Amino acid sequence: MWSFLLRRILLAIPMLLAISFVSFAIMQSVPGGPLAIYRNNPNVRAADLARLEKQLGLDKPMVTQYAIWLRNLATGNWGRSLASGLPVTQMISERIGNTFYLMGTAFILTMLIAIPIGVLSAVKRYSFFDHTATLFSFLGFSVPIFWLGLVAIIVFAVWLRWLPAGGMRTINAEFSFIDRLRYLILPASLMAFHSAAQYSRYVRASMLEVIRQDYITTARAKGQNERNVIYIHALRNALIPLITVVALDLPALFSGALLIETVFAWPGMGRLFWNSATRFDYPVLMGIIITTALLVIACNLIADVLYAFADPRVRLTAGKA
Fold first, then answer.
1. Domain count across the chain
2. Domain for residue 55, yes or no?
3. Residue 94 is part of which domain span?
């Protein structure tokens, strides 16, 4: 198992290099280059632009720039923001915890909603509950999350005044669990609604396939309790496709966080990415891209480990590899 994970980690290195090189090349190919925001400013002189290009190493060939950037990245120097002058690592470290806080809460809510709905929809196939769950899924697929966020702000923050319209906490107020919870409810609930609509369908389809298997029929023939048959024998095997989907959908979760954080002014990675993109702050953009790529690879490794716990056959195969 450990040798299998080690090989996966080693294979991730060329993948990260390819992602970083393509992203770096795209940044350089944007009209005006990384200093486009300054080129459109009439107050910035040509001599100032030339000085900035030399100072940032932008006067060198693109491959040389990438090699310098990669060397600095390996030593922990991710550069400084062109807009604020702060180190990229500092800006990311200040925001990534807030994004994990939001995404983690939304993910837990998603699983608490999607798994029971998917299981019950499969067990009670074509029932009123199944049709209602299907409608719930279609709404989650169809309604854009940013539009739903704006509607939620209008209803719950403007009309009813039950919840705050944006932010993460009350400014200049002492820490309060209730205060943090009030700011978390809307963005986390909307992300969970959007994700659960998708994952519940995967759980339903996987459960429908599993409950037709011979070992489920055998378990029932032995007189085992139906609840044990569904939630111990069937659900454990039905979760394997869900693990795959969740691991591969992490970029989608980040994109959802980007929209939600922008709509609700949540001080996380998504909002930082949006602000950096509008200002074309390419050192920060590159830092966020690399961080996201590392998280995606890490989640895929975690998915491999979870396969082994969910299915002993995977653990046996990995041990022989």
1. 1
2. no
3. 88-320
